[in-house]
Each structure stands twice: as C-alpha cells, then as structure tokens.
Amino acid sequence: MAMIPFEQAIAIDTEIRTAYLNYSMSVIVGRALPDIRDGLKPVQRRVLFAMHEMGVRSGGAYKKSARIVGDVIGKYHPHGDTAVYDTAVRLVQPFTLRYPLIDGQGNFGSIDGDSPAAMRYTEIRLKAISEEMMSELSEETVGFGPNYDESLEEPKVLPAKLPLLLLNGSSGIAVGMATNIPPHNSREIINALLEMIDNPSFSMEDLLRVVTGPDFPTGGLIMGRSGIEEAFRTGRGSVVMRGVVDVEESTRADRQAIVISEIPYMVNKTRLIEKIAALVRDKEIDGIADIRDESNREGMRIVLDLKRDGNPQVIINRLYSMTALQSSFGVNFVAIVNQRPVTLSLLEALRHFLDFRQDVVTKRTLYRLKKARERFHILEGLKRAIDLMDQIIALIRASDSPETAREGLMTSYAFSEIQARAILDMRLQRLTALERDKIEAEYEEVRKIILELERILGSRDVLMGVVREEFLELREKFGDERRTRIVPDEGEIDFESLIPDDPCYINLTFQGYIKRLSKDAYPTQNRGGKGRIGVTLKDDDAVISTLSPTMHETILFFTDIGKVYRLKVHEIPEGQRATRGKSIRSLLALAPDEKVTQLLSIRSFGEEKSLIFVTERGKIKRTQLIHYGQIRQSGIIAISLEEGDRLAQVMVGEPGTDILIATKGGKGILIPMDDPDKGFRSMGRTASGVKGIKLAPNDLVVGAETIQDEDFVAVITARGYGKRVNTGKDFRLQGRGGQGVRILKAAEKIGPVVSVIKVTGSEDVFLITQKGQALRIETSTIRLTGRTAQGVKLLNLQSEDEIQCASLAPLRGETEDGTPAT
User: Fold this and answer.
1) pLDDT-based confidence at 6, cuts 50/70/90?
2) Of 121, 737, 760, 803, which is most buried with the most CB atoms under 10 A?
3) What sequence ranges are listed for the domain Topo IIA-type catalytic (predicted)?
C-alpha cells in the first residue's frame, strides 16, 4: 500500500473538524436558513425562478404541479420530488403564509392537517406578488451562478421589491442553529421602510410605533406587548398567541355556547378539537355538553355547547391553560447576511433590506442607462444616416458584400460598427418623412431618459426617492389590514373585574364533590329550626367543609398529604342548592389517592400576614402567607404531616393576634402568637410545626381561630347545640404546649365539639350536617354563656345525623316568611 507523503498528512481530528464545519455551513447557507435580502431558502427561490422561466404567470394558465416539480429537479434542485412539491405546497397555503407566493388549483391541504393531493392532480401558477419579486431579474440587478451540473445559471438571490422574510416569516433547523421568524403586515412593514427613508435617525422606538407586532395568517390574538418588544429589540422572544373566543346563546334553551372563530398560528384545528374532547371526557374540563365543528368556506366556527351550570369564563380560561388555544411563538430571528448566519433585530433586518433595495435600484438604473446609451448611439447614427442617405445608398450599391459596405460606412463617414450595422439593417420605409420624424422623437425621448437616469445615479436622495415611490405603489397594490389583534395581557387587564364580587357559599364533601352557591341559596331561619336540604349526598358521603367567600377571593385547597392547590372562587362551577356538585378532580390535578381535607379563602397575599396550621394531634405551624401566593397547577407542599396526623384548621393570622385552639373533648387554649416565650416563630413552608396543645387520650383538635382583644367565639357541638363565649373574659393567655382550659361541658346529649367560629353577633352562622341539611341562623340568637355551660339547641337533627361543619354566612338574605332578616 502506498504511503502518504508526510507533508500531505493531516491529523484526523483536524480533518473531521474541518469537514464537519464545511458540512454545517453548507446546510446553513445552502438549505435551512433564509437570505435576509429576498427572505427565501434556496429551494423556494428555485421553485419560483423555474416557474418564472417557464412563463407560468399570474394571469396565464395553470400548469400541472408535477411538470413544475420535474423542471425544478432537472434544472436546479436534484434533491427529490417530495422536497420540491412540499415547498410548492407551502407557498400556496393561505393558512401557512401571510402572503402566498403561488396560486394553487386543487387540494393543497387544510388547517385540519389534511394532506395535499398528489402533484399529478394539482395545478399552480405564480401570484402577482411573486412576479414583482422577479420583475427585475433581466436587468443585471443580482448575481447568477451555475446550477448543480453547471449546465445552466440560476440567481443567487431574487431582486425582491418587498422584504418577504418579514412579510411571510420563516422557520428552519440547521446544524447547531435554527430560525423562527413570524409573519408581519405588509402595510406596516412598508410604512416602516418609508419612514426609514424619510428619517435617517429612525429608531427602535419609532419602529415600535409603526409596526405593532406580528400578523399571523390565521388571525387570533397576541397577548401583551412585552414579548413583541423583546423580539423586535433582540431578535429573540416569546409571543403569546390566543384564539378568538366569543360567548353566544346556544341553540338549546337557557344555555350558552363558546364559539371559537380563530385559532393560533400553526395550530391544527382537528387536533385542537380532539384535545378539548379528551379533556371533557376525562373530566379535566367540566361544563361542556357538546362540541361541533361548523367551519365552512365562510370561515372557522368551533361551537362548544355548555351545560346549564357551565361558567363560560372559567371554561375559556381552562381551555387557554390546557389546550393549544393559547400557544407561544418563540421568535428566533436568524438569517443569512453576507453568507453568514446572524441574529438580527427587526430594525437591523429592515436596514439590511433597504440597503439591498438601494443596491438593486442602483444596478437596475445602471443597466437601463447602459441600454439607453446604446440605443441613443444607434439613433445618432440613424439620424445622421438619413441626412446622408443618397451617398450611403451609392456606397452600398458599389460594395461587393455587406462586410465591404460596413467597412465603407465606418471609414468614409466615421460611423461606429454598431451604427453601421444598424444602418445596413434599416428598412427603406424608414426614409419616409413620417419615419424620420419618429427617429427624431425617439432620439429626443432617449436623451431625456439618459439625463434622468444620470440624475438618479448622481444623488442618493434622488435614488431613494425612486425607491420610496416604488414602496408607495407596492403598498397600494399589496397592503392590507391586520388580521391579528394585540390585546393587553393578563397583567394589563383583569378579566376577573368582569365578574361581580358577590358573596357566595362553597361546599365540599368527603367524596370530593364541590359546588358554589349564590348568597341567596339559604335564607335566615330561627334558632331551633330543622334547616333545609343544602346538598344531595350519596349514602357514604358527607359534607366536610363549607366557606362563605366572595367571587374574587382565592380558595386554597389543602390535602391529606400536606399539599396545597388554588382556584379562584369564580372558577368553581355554580350548582343548585340540592345538587351534589362537581368532582374536585375535574378542577385540581390531584394524585389518585390524594383527598382535599381543608379549604381556606384568601383575599390578598400580603407580606405581613401568615398562614397558621393546626393539626388534629395538636401541632401548630406559622408560615408567611406570601410563600403560597404562587402555586403551580400541580400544587406545592404546604406542611409536612406526621403519619396518622391530619389538618384540623388553616387560617390567616396577622401580627399581634392570639390563637385559640379547641378540641373535640371541650378543651381550649389561647396562645399569644408573637410572644417570644409563649408563642411560636415563623417557619419554612415545608416545616411540620411545634406542639400547640397537649391532648388528653382519644382527644383531637377540631378547630382554631385567630383572636384579637375580646373577640367572641361560637362553640358548636355535633348534636346541634351551641353557645357564644367571651374570649377576653373567660380565657387567659398560655404558652404553647399547655393543656388549656375547658370551653364547654361535654355530655352525650350535646355531643363533642365540632367547630369554633369567631363572631361579632351581627352576622349569621351557616351550619351543615353530614346528611346535607343546612341552617343559617343569626349569631345574636346564640346565647352568651360562660366557659363551662353546655349551650342551647341550634338545630333539630334527624336521628343518626350530626353537624359536620360551620362557617360565617354571606350577607343576609330573607327569613322563610319573606321578611328581611335583622
């Protein structure tokens, strides 16, 4: 085997590195990334150029796609018919390109993801905008290079009159880099170019005023301007897109429907509908009764019929968060500039195109000047030849051959070779007076053209004036209105403000059914009444928690494994008084064996406030409320619970408050939260807490309250008894970990303590039993007694039924006889 000479040897790592770099640059420049000047990738440029060469114009007949593809493959792009046809299809699709470059006839796919018909069935021709992009090809405006086999020449770039890279955007993945450029509105882009010509100090702030943002072919919404501004300034950013959604009256009586009329760019409509259907089937989105696609030639229309209790705004928000109805467009503005990939801001991209357009117009003007001077030179000869025609005819008749006649004209009369040829080619009819006048007129016209072309080349301002006039014509021809609207994002407009902040009830059952009821669901009754049905329950279910928040408050859901989730009150489906409600699993991303055990309503997550956790085994923990202000959809850890322990109460505490803990057996302890010796300090979010009360055997904590000064609390027992107690008078402050004092004399007749509630005497208390009976009574009717008293009967219970929970009721309604409660 022959040895390689030492001076030719190359280290293998060097060779691999060099070869890979060459391959990478070939892919980057020659295949995957668009050129900043015409905004096209090589295969796109070749398809358009081949159609241009074949004469497939916008006003002419369509040609079979297969014929075009064959021509492109055979002459310019030998990389397979699929790649070329896919490119042509994309240039046709109006839902892919903001300004399609090819006019198609036949099936070119759909926004539903349908495949286009085979190329033998479809036909194509150029669009008018594509013809404008190539109208100056024959005027030496751009460079040409050999095709793959050097048998033909193809343009290295098209002399584009508009920045197609900005109008239609582009996407591509190269080696080690990618590009993803959104489309923009032609009128806005042209206006920006016009202002750049008029104002040399045109800035990014000026650009943001003229170009409001991307403009997608499928319309939709862009949420906020922050992502747009970042992308425009840096070339990188994320733009949040949303579909256009409206709420209409359903065809079904007394129901509403959500109608989707526009979807985000590059979202497959069929897959979107399938995703919504799957979420409804899996009960992750509740309240949708039916889904229909009523789209037609007139436009898109996806109809979601709602159930009677479906909250449109809640469902729309969940659609945005769980489907592609809200998507992000990651802007990565990378393009080829001077044969190198560069990340560009929008302003830089416009400047590069304006420089390119100036260069094209300069070259076009030079070409036209050259042609005009050549024609002027010929006209000069013809004009002089007419005056010498008798002598010239005699010379021609005396000549043996055309070559002799040409030489004679050049030597005898000082004509140039070009002029001599033109004279010999001149027809005799040009000797008539009329034809002589035409030559004189053309001579003068060409002379003026030359002067004008020289004037254009002699001044940059005049040249840019020509560019400006062309932009104005193009704006008139191709400018249109925006399709995508830019609206304030969630931080700029509060959709919650559209919902009245009315008080309501929230009920949660042991089996995990939750519902929201209006404030008028339970009118006030007198003490000792039977109550009314508050919720219809299964035999093995029971109400475990009830709240009385307002619609704008946030509900924190605490589970048996110590996690916390959150929902806005208005996101909880509204139900009827006697209905069971919706499964909590359709609203929260709970684990299979995870159960919600505690609810807490929060008005605001202030830094000075704390969450106070009390467990059934007497532990207490304090954590700043702000740590729970941002809770992801999958929940976060709220407290670390010991095995067998459960949350008994969660509440909001403010500086200077005391904590009252009550037990099932009728014991209570009042702890000063901020006292350095008796109280307890703030801990981390995942801490388990410290001992708050020392429990007797078989006793458990059932509730707790925050106390200030001489607050009153209502103590409620399982068998429907209750009383009010003055905490300032009947309790003394104790250190955490003590046994506490008696708050109620327990007896079998009244049952164990189930709840303690801080009251003022001017509000109502809402009681609900395990079997779903509900009673709302005025706290002023609950007798004020000492610590050890048993209290009075509040509710007549059915046999084997017990009070499960209690809470303060919303604003008062009416008594059962229809008179306002006082």
Assistant:
1) low
2) 803
3) 33-498
CA separation for the pair 353, 601 (Å, rounded): 57
| Nearest C-alpha neighbor of 464 from the set 195, 211, 201, 207 | 195
Residues 6+ apart with CB under 8 A from 286: 280, 310, 573, 582, 583, 586, 587
Residue 430 burial by Cβ neighbours in a 10 Å radius (0-12, 13-18, 19+): middle
- Alpha-carbon gap, residue 427 to 275, rounded angstroms: 77
Residues 6+ apart with CB under 8 A from 444: none
Rg of the Cα trace of the chain? 41
Nearest to 216 by CA among 482, 424, 444: 482
- Quickly list DSSP for 663-689: ETTSEEEEEETT-TTTS-----TT---
Length of the chain, please?
A: 822
Dig out the tokens for 665 from the structure: 């057996």
**Residue entry with tokens 């060459």:** 22
How is the chain split into domains, by residue range? 244-324, 356-478, 499-808
Gap between the Cα atoms of 639 and 598, Å rounded: 13
Q: Are 577 and 314 in contact (CB under 8 A)?
A: no
Q: Backbone dihedral region of 220: left (phi > 0), alpha (psi from -120 to 50 degrees) or beta?
A: left
Alpha helices in 292-426 (DSSP H): 312-322, 346-387, 389-398, 402-413, 417-425
CATH superfamily of 356-478: Topoisomerase, domain 3 (1.10.268.10)
Q: What is the pTM of this model?
A: 0.65
Q: Where are the alpha helices (DSSP H) in 5-127?
A: 12-27, 42-54, 65-75, 81-92
Structure tokens at 558: 């605490």
Classify 499-808 by CATH class.
mainly beta
- Report CA 392 to chain centroid distance, whole Å: 79
State how far the Cα of 127 lies from the Cα of 91, in Å rounded to an integer: 10
How many other C-beta atoms can be found within 10 angstroms of the C-beta atom of residue 317? Answer: 18
**117 Cβ contact list (under 8 Å, min separation 6):** 106, 107, 108
Answer whether 754's CB lies under 8 Å from 815's CB.
no
Instruction: Give the integer Cα–Cα distance in Å for 69 and 632.
Output: 51
236-242/256-262 β-pairing: unpaired
As a CATH number, domain 244-324 is 3.30.1360.40
List Cα–Cα distances, 818 to 523, 553, 809, 814, in angstroms: 9, 30, 18, 6
pLDDT in tens, 600-655: 888 888 767 889 999 999 999 999 888 888 887 778 999 998 888 988 889 888 88
- pLDDT digit string, tens, across residues 391-434: 888 888 888 888 888 888 888 888 888 888 888 888 766 667 67
